[in-house]
Design a protein that fits this description.
With 758 residues, the protein is mostly beta strands. The protein is 5% helix and 50% strand. The N terminus is likely disordered.
Length: 758
């Protein structure tokens, strides 16, 4: 870190840092303080877990909201960076469902399915500056009824932004740390101006990869939010822009780890000669006189020169909460999101300038994305006798394009800019995605408010139309897929045994839209494959859960059990033998329904507050999620029935001790994640692991014309445990451990933050 940047960082830090704890606790527009309400969903008819401002202290400022969720029962969050922001390596699973089968919103704005090559949204790390995140609510069952999502088979995560402060002021902070971490954050609030309040904020972050060659990663974000209260009505606006450039870490295999490459192995850069020598070993560019592997590398796929993800996003929303009468309220939300993205991979074996004297055995492959979507949600609620009724709708139009190109190169350079004018175009496909969803629900209370019954239905309809553009090397399908259901029922029941104890149970059915765009769904295939996949049904889930909650002046506890059936699981495969391929019409690689998945488990949450300022949070979970059906691939039965689903730990435990007193604060969090498989037949796995994170500091209070100055220290992966983080690229079997399925965990990293409020 140079002296000029350090001087700027310290100056900025001594200007401002204001702790706001307001966050919406439901999908409505009004803000509440999540830290003052039940963490485990008191009074709800389904399993609910919440996080608030205080839960962010254990992790360094700038940590993704998704990373903070890792302490919750049943949740596994993995990433190979301390902040959980590197999108290629970040993932979340819940009760056996992976990240693309969960739903996500920010203040009711749909964020899509959280896939890396996203076609219908953006990650929470790009949607909001982490310091402006007020909290989150994780729920299953009936809690997902009004959530604007087409992927929430296994649950919904609703994030909430902080409201503007009603007092004029601001805050700023600077974080510095290992691997040249430099993060500056600034926010200014107008305070209340006759019912109007707003803030503007920005962040500038630079960091290096923790593994060689330590390439730079940058993030630039801007957020603005305004709230205007007019009588009983509330109007709001939100703006978020994000510019991200992330160098991607290499995937590892178990074989690579055993050969001695280790968890710190990464890309070849800046060793261009080594990358070229290895690329000459690829079949398409093989040259026996130039082919050479070195070190413990023995495969063309053990490494590549470099890889990078570029993402530019703009997100805008307007909302209104209108009080139309004593028993009638209307909530409206309109939003727009546009995105362009480009993913780079320096592809060995894909030649530049083939057949010329300039030929090199490497070219850059890019996957280009654009998203242009806008939508509207509306919810009308009214009370009639014992009924609390609500009816709502969601409409979205999304124009998405994905293309894959190759760019010829003459030698190495840092690819942190968008590439133009490709030399080859592999494919180019437009998607027109229209989503309509309607719902109606009723909450009834009986027996002097002790018995609560929630009942509702929703009717989702997502039509996805793909158009393949001509003049490309690879011919993709043009066609339409529709995922719809006229009636999906949901039911919830809650019963108060007494003031401190309650029972709850819920049942819900959901379907998911077909995957689109660069995520590799059933439309990103050849025309022949799409034709052979006719009649596909969308994936569907049925969830039943029940539980018990108890509350006291110094504790909260929740115990929940669940059973889930997940039907119509889709995989891309060819059922025929190599001899049969090409001889029968059905012998073509295509998406096939490979049967069902069954999940059941239990989750325990216990929170103890023995004295003022001290809290001990604990969560335990047990899950068994298994494939229910064998399937046919390559002419052979793949024996997966009864096997544990990939990337699903059966046991997890987390514990966090938090202390606040006289300006001092400290948190220590431990998380155990059990063994996870990355093959469908369970012949390969990664072992369980226990990790620790810690944070602490001191708030000095007012002085020097400032309202508060705070210094904090955060340590991630406290014991420097090296382990397999994210798992991906799953397969039926991997007998030799050669599949590139592992993203390594980050080593221990230390960060210091100086902040102030004015």
């Amino acid at each position: 870190m140079n002296l000029q940047r350090l001087s700027f960082a310290i100056t900025l830090a001594l200007c401002t840092n204001h702790a706001f704890a307001e966050a919406a606790a439901d999908s409505g527009a009004s803000a509440q303080t999540l830290d003052t309400i039940s963490v485990i969903g008191q009074g709800q008819t389904r399993q609910v877990q919440r996080i608030g401002e205080v839960d962010k202290q254990v992790l360094p400022p700038g940590s993704s909201g998704q990373k903070i969720l890792d302490r919750l029962p049943g949740v596994s969050v993995q990433s190979n960076d301390a902040f959980g922001a590197n999108e290629e390596s970040q993932t979340i699973s819940l009760r056996g469902f992976d990240k693309t089968r969960l739903g996500y919103t920010l203040d009711g704005i749909p964020l899509g399915d959280n896939s890396y090559g996203n076609y219908n949204g953006l990650s929470i790390a790009r949607a909001i500056i982490a310091e402006n995140l007020g909290g989150a609510e994780l729920s299953q069952g009936i809690g997902s009824l009004g959530v604007a999502s087409t992927s929430n088979l296994g649950g919904a995560i609703q994030y909430f932004s902080q409201d503007p402060s009603t007092v004029f002021g601001g805050r700023a902070s600077v974080t510095v740390g290992d691997d040249n971490q430099r993060r500056g954050y600034l926010r200014v609030d107008t305070g209340d101006l006759n019912g109007f309040s707003a803030y503007v904020s920005g962040v500038h972050q630079d960091a290096d990869m923790w593994a060689a060659p330590h390439q730079n990663q940058t993030t630039r974000q801007f957020n603005a939010k305004a709230v205007w209260n007019v009588g009983d009505h509330r109007f709001g606006a939100f703006i978020a822009t994000s510019r991200a450039s992330q160098a991607n870490y290499a995937y590892l295999s178990k074989s690579m780890l055993q050969r001695g490459l280790g968890y710190d192995w990464n890309i070849y850069a800046p060793d261009w000669d080594r990358a070229v020598a290895a690329a000459y070993c690829a079949p398409a560019t093989f040259d026996a006189t130039r082919c050479a592997f070195s070190g413990d590398v023995n495969s063309i796929d053990d490494a590549y020169y470099q890889s990078r993800a570029l993402r530019d996003d703009n997100l805008y929303s307007l909302d209104a909460s209108l009080h139309l009468g004593d028993e009638l309220n209307l909530k409206l939300l309109a939003y727009h999101h546009d995105n362009r993205g480009q993913g780079h991979w320096w592809a060995p074996g894909q030649p530049s300038y083939p057949g010329t004297d300039r030929m090199l055995p490497i070219s850059i492959r890019s996957t280009n994305y654009t998203i242009d979507r806008q939508g509207l949600t509306a919810a009308l609620s009214w009370n009639v006798g014992i009924h609390e009724l609500e009816a709502g709708l969601w409409f979205e139009q999304n124009d998405h394009n994905v293309e894959r190109n190759f760019y010829y190169i003459d030698g190495p350079f840092l690819d942190d800019t968008y590439l133009k004018n490709p030399d080859r175009r592999l494919f180019d496909q437009d998607f027109d995605i229209r989503t309509r969803q309607f719902y109606v629900q009723d909450r009834m209370r009986f027996l002097d408010q002790r018995l609560t019954v929630d009942i509702g239905i929703k009717s989702p309809n997502t039509r996805m139309r793909a158009t393949a553009k001509p003049g490309t090397e690879q011919k993709l399908a043009s066609g339409t897929l529709t995922a719809k259901e006229s009636l999906l029922p949901q039911l919830g029941v809650g019963f108060k045994l007494n003031a401190n104890n309650e029972l709850f149970a819920s049942y819900a059915e959901n379907i998911a839209a077909f995957v689109g765009g660069g995520s590799g769904g059933p439309l990103q295939v050849s025309p022949e494959s799409f034709a052979a996949s006719a009649g596909l049904e969308p994936e569907k889930s049925k969830t039943f859960e029940a539980g018990f909650r108890t509350f006291g002046s110094k504790y909260q506890a929740s115990l929940a059990a669940y059973h889930v059936m997940f039907d119509n699981r889709l995989l891309s495969l060819n059922p025929c033998t190599s001899i049969e391929v090409g001889t029968r019409p059905e012998c073509i690689t295509r998406f096939i329904n490979v049967g069902s998945v069954k999940s059941h488990g239990a989750e325990l949450t216990f929170i103890l507050k023995p004295t003022q300022g001290l809290q001990w949070y604990n969560a335990l979970s047990w899950n068994k999620t298994t494939y229910e059906d064998d399937y046919l691939s390559g002419g052979a039965i793949v024996p997966v029935a009864g096997k544990i689903t990939v990337d699903t730990p059966q046991r997890m435990a987390s514990s966090e001790l938090s202390w606040n007193r006289d300006g001092w604060f400290a948190s220590l969090r431990g998380k155990y994640t059990g063994k996870r498989y990355y093959t469908y037949t369970n012949d390969q796995s990664v072992p369980g692991v226990t990790t620790f994170d810690a944070g602490g500091g001191y708030s000095f209070g007012p002085g020097m014309g400032l309202q508060n100055v705070k210094v904090s220290l955060n340590v991630t992966n406290l014991t420097n445990k090296r382990y397999a983080g994210q798992l991906s690229s799953f397969a039926p079997t991997d007998p030799n451990g050669t599949r590139y399925s592992i993203h390594a965990s980050a080593p221990r990293q230390i960060f210091m933050t100086v902040g102030a409020e004015f």
